[in-house]
């Protein structure tokens, strides 16, 4: 109801990225940090810079109580954070990635990490996807999601998509069975586009398909469907390829 997620996030990479995001001017509230005893002083100092409430516990106790996939809790950190906090659509700067009912925090984190590195820092999340913007998603994104802006489509995804279209944002819906191969968004240097990524099994919702300007796919030569995170990565790369500074950096 508050348009805000409050949960336990974890991992030093995530805490460092959060600190960097706050230094860059982003307002992210961290209530407290839990650390294992015996850490090096620089890590303790980082925790104190993020929150005044830093607590310590025996590493084995933390490992038992906070069993997080892919993290050695004996030397990791856990922190309670209010994130993300929804912002109005008007505050989002295209390009945008739209999470339409994604059911896996792992996939959400993977997509957001890719999106950030390809110049996409604005996210619209449906009600179903909002709950997966969790500590696991943060860990998979390596904390890059703290550098992004989020809008919770609490009034329904259609309303958010219509508002994006009213701002001149071109909507691309991605599904394996659509006929049009993904290609760079045009005209060159334009960033006014949004990629809609759907549920792992059900795909993009009917309401999003109806409102999409273009229905795209990732052409495949063999095999079955791609993982949604991999397909989204290909689409994000292709759409961003002509976006100049907002897309892919060209090596000199």
Describe the fold and architecture.
By secondary structure, the protein is of the alpha/beta class. It folds into 2 domains: 4-84, 2-Layer Sandwich (60s Ribosomal Protein L30, Chain: A), CATH 3.30.1330.30; 89-243, 3-Layer(aba) Sandwich (Alpha/beta knot), CATH 3.40.1280.10. It has helices at residues 12-23, 41-50, 59-65, 105-117, 127-130, 135-140, 157-166, 206-211, 228-240; strands at residues 4-10, 29-36, 54-57, 78-85, 96-100, 122-125, 149-152, 170-174, 180-181, 193-198, 214-217. The strands form 2 sheets. A 7-stranded parallel sheet has the order 7-6-5-10-8-11-9, sandwiched between helices. It has a 4-stranded mixed sheet with strand order 1-4-2-3. Helix 1 (12-23) packs across helix 2 (41-50) and helix 4 (105-117) runs parallel beside helix 9 (228-240).
Instruction: Please give the domain count.
Output: 2
The proportion of residues in beta strands is 15-25%
Overall CATH architecture of the largest domain: 3-Layer(aba) Sandwich
Give the integer mean of the pLDDT values. Answer: 91
What is the CATH homologous superfamily assignment of the largest domain? SPOUT methyltransferase, trefoil knot domain
Overall geometry:
elongated
The top-level CATH class of the largest domain is Alpha Beta
Total number of beta strands: 11
The main sheet comes to: 7 strands, parallel
Report the uncertain regions. none
Radius of gyration: 19 Å
Distance between the termini: 48 Å
CATH topology of the largest domain: Alpha/beta knot
Order of helices and strands: EHEHEHEEHEHHEHEEEHEH
Helix-residue proportion: 25-40%
State the strand order across the main sheet. Answer: 7-6-5-10-8-11-9
Enumerate how many helices there are, as a single number: 9
From the helix content, strand content and strand pairing, which structural class follows?
A: alpha/beta
